[in-house]
């Protein structure tokens, strides 16, 4: 339950704090005093949209904080959960759950487990198909729980098998698509017939081909510079020195050194001549080299940064092809298990469907009886249970829709397409009354659910709110004397002007003040007669 609500800078609310209690909490007061702003603040803290126009004039931010006592929740600290949301004029949100920052989406998902708000335009929850399933199954109770759990266990087994089949290419079309791709890649690499040092060699050849003219010209110059004449001159010098060898050893040493130069120069001359003869420009050769390098660059772009990586990728592709082709037997076994699981799921789903059909009729009757009490005598609800032959849902194979007919002789329609805000609130009250003992939401908030009703219907609304409050904390903004008299705790909302600013005030009423408020609501004035009526109404309800 909510134990404390703190609101700051929203509309005409300056800074208020409300301590709430279990049971039926009824808020009454002056028109325009801020009752709706309190409900709006509860919507904000529940993750609803927020308009910057709601920030109090002259302020830069608004703030809502509530403390909930939820001892059974895993999120509670010492039984308490503290949730806050601060919104600035810049639009920046600061949401926290027990001091931990969360997004607005996370806040909304968290709070929907604890609070439901029902007003003229706040019953979107009632229009959702999943909600209808949860309402019906909650009403059925123990009879459906074990069957649903068995079905749900199989549902997740089925989901895991389908996932594994997808990963194993168990789908024939997907498998063939993947195989075609891998085989294309393998063929492309195989046909290239790469070797690791090929690119480096080709780059060298390419460099030579592109510079062949320059190479030939300079080799010619070098060859001519050495020429036959240079070698002949050295040979002549050697013969001359040989004639002096007997005179002094130094001439013999010089002769030997020159002979070494002679032989080396002959070798170099032969090499240069060979280089010159081997170097020529061939356009066809250049095109072959360029084409081969282009192919290597293309394969590198697709499969790796170098030839070594491409060849490694080729090995991986070969292994994957072998893996997919050998997976067929395993996939056949998975498909066999899948068929058995689906067959078992269908059996459970049919049992679930049968129970839902049976209890859907009972739930419809009970809700319709409540609607008659709420002065909606011509309205009727029917719980439509449809079995889907093709789809498997986590909750079974059923789709559940609450259908409504508001007038005799009209066709049934989905709630979202026919019901007004006031009617929706009373339908929600009827549903909550029927499901009071099984509904898991701990806090229910009703905003002016009694609009447009009086007399017997008003009394019935108050009684149903009281019954619901036995198992839930109920907050209700009301204009009914009966609801005010029925409350466990009454809060009066008023406004005052201080320093030329309007402010909202909240006060929890004592017994005397409650009687005054009942009198004011019932007759518009407080006097001996209205107070007597208030006292009688309060005592009658209490008894």
Strand arrangement, major sheet: 2-1-4-5-6-7
Overall structural domain count: 4
Q: CATH top level of the largest domain?
A: Alpha Beta
- CATH architecture verdict of the largest domain: 3-Layer(aba) Sandwich
Q: Kindly, what is the distance between the CA atoms of the first and last residues, rounded to a whole number of angstroms?
A: 26 Å
> Number of DSSP strands?
15
Radius of gyration: 45 Å
The CATH homology group name of the largest domain: P-loop containing nucleotide triphosphate hydrolases
CATH topology of the largest domain: Rossmann fold
Number of helices: 17
Shape: elongated
Structural class: alpha/beta
What share of residues are in beta strands? Answer: 15-25%
Question: Biggest β-sheet: count, sense, barrel?
Answer: 6 strands, antiparallel
Mean pLDDT: 85
What assembly state would you assign to the polypeptide chains in this entry?
A: single chain
Poorly predicted ranges = none
Helix content: 55-70%
Strand and helix map with partners:
Blueprint: E1 2-10, E2 13-19, E3 24-29, H1 35-45, E4 61-69, E5 80-88, E6 93-97, E7 100-102, H2 104-111, E8 115-118, H3 129-140, H4 142-167, H5 172-192, H6 198-210, H7 212-242, H8 249-278, H9 283-303, H10 307-326, H11 328-373, E9 380-387, E10 398-405, E11 413-414, H12 415-418, H13 421-434, E12 443-447, H14 455-468, E13 473-477, H15 481-486, E14 489-498, E15 501-508, H16 511-523, H17 528-542
Parallel strand pairs: 3-13, 3-14, 8-12, 12-13
Antiparallel strand pairs: 1-2, 1-4, 4-5, 5-6, 6-7, 9-10, 10-11, 14-15
Helix pairs in contact: 3-11, 4-11, 5-10, 6-9, 7-8, 9-10, 11-13, 13-14, 16-17
């Amino acid at each position: 339950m909510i134990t404390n609500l703190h609101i700051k800078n929203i509309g005409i609310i300056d800074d208020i704090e409300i301590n709430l209690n279990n049971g039926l909490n009824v808020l009454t007061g002056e028109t325009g005093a801020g009752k709706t702003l309190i409900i709006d603040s509860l919507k904000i803290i529940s993750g609803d949209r927020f308009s910057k126009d709601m920030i109090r004039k002259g302020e830069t931010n608004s703030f809502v904080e509530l403390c909930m006592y939820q001892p059974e929740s895993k999120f509670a600290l010492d039984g308490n959960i503290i949730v806050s949301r601060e919104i600035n004029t810049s639009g920046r949100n600061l949401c926290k759950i027990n001091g931990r920052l969360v997004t607005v989406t996370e806040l909304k998902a968290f709070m929907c487990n604890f609070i439901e708000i029902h007003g003229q335009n706040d019953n979107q929850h009632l229009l959702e198909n999943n909600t209808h399933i949860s309402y019906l199954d909650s009403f059925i109770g123990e009879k459906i729980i074990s069957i649903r759990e068995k079905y749900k266990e199989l549902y997740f087994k089925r989901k895991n098998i389908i996932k594994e089949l997808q990963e194993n290419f168990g789908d024939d079309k997907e498998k063939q698509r993947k195989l075609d791709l891998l085989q294309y890649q393998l063929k492309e690499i195989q046909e290239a017939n790469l070797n690791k040092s090929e690119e480096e060699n080709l780059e060298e050849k390419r460099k030579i081909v592109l510079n062949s003219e320059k190479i030939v010209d300079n080799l010619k110059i070098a060859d001519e510079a050495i020429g036959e004449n240079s070698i002949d001159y050295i040979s002549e010098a050697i013969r001359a020195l040989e004639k002096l060898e007997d005179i002094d050893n130094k001439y013999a040493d010089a002769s030997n050194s020159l002979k070494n130069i002679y032989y080396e120069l002959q070798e170099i001359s032969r090499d240069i001549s060979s280089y010159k003869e081997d170097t020529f420009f061939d356009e066809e050769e250049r095109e072959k080299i360029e084409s081969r390098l282009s192919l290597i660059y293309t394969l590198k772009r697709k499969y790796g940064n170098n030839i070594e990586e491409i060849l490694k990728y080729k090995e991986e592709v070969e292994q994957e092809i072998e893996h997919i082709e050998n997976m067929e037997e395993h996939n056949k076994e998975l498909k066999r298990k899948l068929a058995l699981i689906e067959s078992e799921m269908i059996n459970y789903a049919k049992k679930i469907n049968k129970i839902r059909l049976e209890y859907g009729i009972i739930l419809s009757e009970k809700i319709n009886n409540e609607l008659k009490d709420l002065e909606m005598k011509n309205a009727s609800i029917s719980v439509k249970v449809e079995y889907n032959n093709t789809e498997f849902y986590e909750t079974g194979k059923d789709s559940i829709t609450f259908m409504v007919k508001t007038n005799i002789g009209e066709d049934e329609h989905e709630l979202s397409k026919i019901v007004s805000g006031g009617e929706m609130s009373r339908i929600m009250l009827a549903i909550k009354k029927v499901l009071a003992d099984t509904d898991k939401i701990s806090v229910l908030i009703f905003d002016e659910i009694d609009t447009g009703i009086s007399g017997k219907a008003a009394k019935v609304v108050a009684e149903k709110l009281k019954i619901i409050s036995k198992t839930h904390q109920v907050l209700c903004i009301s204009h009914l004397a009966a609801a005010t008299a029925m409350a466990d705790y009454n809060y009066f909302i008023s406004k005052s002007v201080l320093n030329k600013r309007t402010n909202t005030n909240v006060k929890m009423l004592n017994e005397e003040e409650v009687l005054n408020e009942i009198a004011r609501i019932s007759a518009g004035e407080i006097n001996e007669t209205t107070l007597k009526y208030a006292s009688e109404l309060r005592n009658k309800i209490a008894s």
